[in-house]
């Protein structure tokens, strides 16, 4: 009885395998591609060898542009582990796991990626724009150029000189410096002070002048 049950289980698994069970689907998932090739300075031939031929190509000033569309999948180890898990689940549940495993594998079938790459005249990457799947491929701002890769002259910018800023010590010394005063002759400081008593005393008559009594004629 047990032999018949086990044989029936194997037969059902084979039928599921033909129709697309989770074990088979896990093994057929797309492989994982090395997205580090989308780095400044990488040759075009290396990019095509890793992710396949571009779906679109056009000429641009001082080079050309490719657009790559592919599906980023899973490593071999991850696919084998998923297949073993589904197989064990099918065995212990008599195939009932496929109700959950098959939709799971249909949903987790990789990530669609679209990347635009611009090359220099020597077919080395000088710009990378991630159009879709930025969580899988590094953005162009964070992609580092490999060691020894040529950097186009057009991508290097001349340093900008910063305006000179006066030193704090110079500003403090200039703030503490005394303000020059006006000359004394401009504010009337050269005149000698006058005695207040002399200015209020009556003026003495000049010599040779007569008083009012002397000026009256005698009767």
Describe the protein:
Helix content is 35%, strand content 15%. The protein is α+β, with helices and mostly antiparallel strands and 219 residues long. The protein has a domain at 2-145. A 4-stranded antiparallel beta sheet has the order 1-2-3-4, with no helix packed on it. The protein is elongated and about 85 Å long. Strand 1 (56-60) and strand 2 (63-72) form a beta hairpin. Mean pLDDT is 73; it is low at 139-148, 151-157 and 186-191.
Q: Strand order of the main beta sheet, please? A: 1-2-3-4
* C-alpha geometry: elongated
How does the major sheet shape up? 4 strands, antiparallel
Show unreliable segments.
139-148, 151-157, 186-191
Q: Please report the total strand number as a whole number.
A: 4
Give the % helix.
25-40%
Mean pLDDT: 73
Series of H and E elements: HHHEEHHEEHHH
Proportion of residues in extended strands: 5-15%
Q: How far do the termini sit from each other?
A: 185 Å
The number of helices is 8
Structural class: alpha+beta
Radius of gyration: 50 Å
List the SSEs and their pairings:
Elements: H1 2-19, H2 22-27, H3 44-51, E1 56-60, E2 63-72, H4 76-92, H5 98-107, E3 111-119, E4 125-132, H6 168-176, H7 196-200, H8 212-215
Antiparallel strand pairs: 1-2, 2-3, 3-4
């Amino acid at each position: 009885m047990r032999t018949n049950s086990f044989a029936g289980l194997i037969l059902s698994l084979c039928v599921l395998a033909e129709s697309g069970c989770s074990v088979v689907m896990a093994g057929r998932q797309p492989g994982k591609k090395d997205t580090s090739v989308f780095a400044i300075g990488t040759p075009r031939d290396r990019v095509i060898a890793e992710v396949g031929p571009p779906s679109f190509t056009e000429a641009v000033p001082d080079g050309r542009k490719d657009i790559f569309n592919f599906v980023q999948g899973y490593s071999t180890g991850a696919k084998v582990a998923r297949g073993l898990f589904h197989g064990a689940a099918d065995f212990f549940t008599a195939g009932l796991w496929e109700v959950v495993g098959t939709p799971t594998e249909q949903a987790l079938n990789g990530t669609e990626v679209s990347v635009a790459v611009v090359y220099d005249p020597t077919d080395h990457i000088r710009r990378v724009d991630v159009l879709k799947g930025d969580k899988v491929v590094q953005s162009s701002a964070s992609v580092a150029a490999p060691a020894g890769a040529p950097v186009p002259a057009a991508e290097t910018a001349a340093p900008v000189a910063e305006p000179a800023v006066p030193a704090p010590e110079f500003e403090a010394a200039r703030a503490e410096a005394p303000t020059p005063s006006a000359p004394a002759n401009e504010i009337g400081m050269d005149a000698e002070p006058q005695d207040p008593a002399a200015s209020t005393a009556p003026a003495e008559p000049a010599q040779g002048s007569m008083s009012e009594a002397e000026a009256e004629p005698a009767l």
